[in-house]
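Question (not urgent): is this output format expected?
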Amino acid sequence: MIEIAPLAIAATDLATGTVPHTGTVNGLTVSLSPAAPLLRLSLRARDSGVLSAALGRMVPERIGTHLDGIARLGPDEWHALLPEDSPVPAIAGQPLSVVDVSSRSVGFTLEGPGAVAALTRGCPLDLARFTPGRATRTVFETVEIQIWALAPDRFHVEVWRSFGPWLWHSIADGIV
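Got this back:
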């Protein structure tokens, strides 16, 4: 059963951490850090080949996986996390959608042997079986997030900016 963290303060009182928060969860070391600035793109296409050609890189074919900074979240939906200075592809006249959502979301990195335990405090997924290369949309307590498995003990978490401070503090609260 998931327990909702008792954060009884207004969201206006919260600020997202700007330096890593390191400690342990269940005796395992973990570090929570703000992610580097990224270009975030919401991508829609019926044909992954057309999208791949427009982006100039391969896109994952399997839902729930990521490849080269792009996660496939649904049958016609991808989400890209690219270096901040990456160009937004020109797609005029092509049957696809590319929307820059960089201002909508923020990202965090959880790293270390306790990363799974830190996320499992509020996420219903069996993250111990969430292998590198996997990515999905899920929830942490009641907030929608994306989790990208980068390594067995390293995860990137995306959340809408308005929920970022709350999520940061909720995860950090479990790291002692």
